[in-house]
Amino acid sequence: MSTHYRIHLHWSFDYNHGAQKPDFANELITLLQGYQTRTQDVEIGQIKHTYRILPNFWRGYSGRNRPGDSLSIGSAVIQRHKKSDKLWCYKVQYKNSTSGENALLQFQCNDECYRTLTGNWKATVTNSGQDIYANIELKGEIKNNEQISLCFNRTEITIGMENDALPLTCNWGLYDVIPAIAESLRTKGSTVDISLLDDLEQLRPKCQIGYLDSIQDPIPLDGYYLYGTGLLPSYWWVDESKNVVIVSTVFETMVLQEYSGSST
Amino acid sequence: MKTCPNIIFINTDQHSWDAISAYGNTYLQTPNIDKLHRNGTSFKNTYCTDPVCAAARSSWATGLYTSETGVPFNGGSLHPDIQDIGQILKQGGYRTFHCGKWHVPGRNVRESFETLYYGHNNIGAGGAAYYDSASTHAVMDFLTNYDDKKPFYLQIGYVDPHDVCEYLHNHEEKQIPNPVEQGILSEDDLPPLPDNFNYDDRETVLHRVCRRVDDALIHARILKAVKTWDELHWRYLRWNYYRFIEKVDAEIGTVLSLLQQTDFVDNTLIIFSADHGEACGSHQLFQKFALYEESVRVPFIVSCLGEGIDVKRDRFNNTHFVSGVDILPTVCDYANVDPPDTCQGDTLRPLVEDKEVTWRDYAYIESNYWGRAIVTDQYKYITEYKPKSIEDYLPPGPNDAQLGRAQLFHRNTEPSETENLADVPEYKDIVNACKIKLFAHENRLNRQQIVQPGAQKLISNWRRRLQGYWERGY
């Protein structure tokens, strides 16, 4: 029998209302109370976080008439390992049953707190919908130290120019960036400006990260915000072990389901 | 013989006409829509046919007004005998493709178009966060693989900035601190309140029952929440709305950049528009459903990124009234295909090519089944039909005895629409002239009975509520 929790959720991830059945809070808290006890076998040197995607509304437009099943409409698995040459290699698997897209993102970052993008990257996306678009593969790189370039079916486009003044990272690298800079943001009240390459294909040229709040319930967490050009505010909640546990934005809330390895 | 051009119709959802940086809005950056403007003509007097998704889109698809299509609100069903743009162009030798949001109830998009992408479970009203980037992927795939000799028509339905609705739903059952209390933005970071935040409450009964009263017919729970907002909440709504637009602008940018790298660029016409606007705090309203400018006036750009099509560039057309019904005849003209005789719209091609042409001197808009507006160079006239004593589900038409309240705004001296002049004696003749224009226009419509049971039920429910207000002398 499932437990139903009656607990106050922070406004930034409180979506326990509207057309969300089963209960949003119940699903979120069940995940939060379980992620620390769940472990997975991974290769040595691997860090892995698995998140469930909970829709904030209308089951993420995935259809409401599926009684009894999970509210989750997908998952994200972030795996990374450090290479001997001080690079971090990331592999992100993202599945979304509303869009129908399943993505595999592969990229490399420098071994520093902002996880700046380096080298080439690749996004392989498949569509499970019934229409013509079935899959794509995008390859990207920074050319001439500034030109952010994407190549697709032998066609190359420039999606923007790197801003020398701001570190450029991928949104999926933020799962390590925010814990790394969290203490400084929280204790000094400072903010950090970065550029983001959203899903390795959309440049958000200027974004800001700062401290939001701290909470004790349902578990002790420190919250941080992120917003920028072309980017709605999102709220990132980090636990005492420096795991990003909740990421919530307008449309969805990602909740840590399990992890292995350490980010720091 | 010159080859017929490819045509791409890019549309955003809930995008007000002035939320574009090339038009002087300094609170957002839309470099890619700006690029369309620099390479084309922006028609700044463009109005949707009905400020709600399904209705406005039924006009795009058919060249008809919403009392003709069978979709007079976010429901109903497109009458089966009406041809849509996909079917018409296909018969004219085009290959027709659809990608993204469609939202024309009663018409299976997959039967009228080859669909590149339509979500995993068919795209409904919202969900830009998931659908828009997938739509871009599908278009990238298409543009780099299309090798048919036939010209193509591709319509790309982006959902954003419609996700501002999700932002509003966020507030339904919880208090969210304003961004200054959150500590994430300062007051200086936020756009100001709109000039017309305060409004004249002498509105039509339809409008007040739909959008103002506590148990409003449309999104009463959001209304209840925004009644607790302070000024910074409203300004934060505007700030967020602009981020949604920047987001979709970036998606459009990928499509345009890719198109420029293909052989199609010279011979591809691009039309950009939106189904309706967003009130975004004007008149203390949110979303659409109203007949004020922010909800009904939309961007409309005809553009070509190459050299093969005669398009006047970097130019504003401020004089001609354009409507959502003009999409279909414009596309047909460029495709060298005859539009249906019943089509209410006109082709914009002569205007794009800077040729003299006789043109309408007003825009006609419907809303929430009973609401009507006429926009002229100087005035906007808003009115409503009272519910019939016995509902026959025929959308109300030219009937003076059935008219309810009116609003009149002077567009030149008071463009923010905050002073209703309808009852001012000096403007009686203007109101009458607008009424004559309204009835003349409606006499040319082929209004058809709404037959879909769900839509009939909604009309009956709304009618009951409206009638109650009229009987109580509201």
Overview of this protein structure:
Chain A has 264 residues and is mostly beta strands. Chain A has one domain (11-260). Chain A has helices spanning 24-34, 174-188; strands at 46-55, 74-82, 87-96, 101-110, 117-127, 135-143, 147-152, 155-161, 168-170, 191-198, 202-215, 221-228, 231-238, 244-248, 252-260. In chain A, strands 8-7-6-5-4-3-2-1-15-14-13-12-11-10-9 form a 15-stranded mixed sheet, sandwiched between helices. In chain A, a hairpin with a 7-residue loop joins strand 5 (117-127) and strand 6 (135-143). The radius of gyration of chain A is 18 Å and the shape is globular. Chain A starts with 23 loop residues before the first helix and ends with a strand. The mean pLDDT of chain A is 90. Chain B is α/β, with parallel strands linked by helices and 474 residues long. Chain B folds into two domains: 6-165 and 234-361, Alkaline Phosphatase, subunit A (3-Layer(aba) Sandwich); 363-471, Arylsulfatase, C-terminal domain, CATH 3.30.1120. Chain B contains 16 helices and 14 strands. Chain B has helices at residues 31-38, 53-62, 66-69, 85-91, 109-112, 128-143, 164-169, 179-182, 205-211, 220-226, 231-260, 293-296, 327-335, 349-352, 428-443, 453-471, and strands at residues 6-12, 40-43, 46-47, 95-100, 114-117, 152-157, 268-274, 300-303, 315-317, 322-323, 362-367, 371-376, 379-385, 403-410. In chain B, the strands form three sheets. In chain B, strands 5-4-6-1-7-8-2-9 form an eight-stranded mixed sheet, with helices on both faces. Chain B has a four-stranded antiparallel sheet with strand order 11-12-13-14, with helices on both faces. In chain B, strands 3-10 form a two-stranded parallel ribbon. In chain B, helix 6 (128-143) packs parallel to helix 11 (231-260). The radius of gyration of chain B is 21 Å and the shape is globular. Classes of the chains: A mainly beta (264), B alpha/beta (474). Chains A and B meet through strand 8, strand 11 and strand 13 of A and strand 5, helix 6, helix 7 and helix 11 of B.
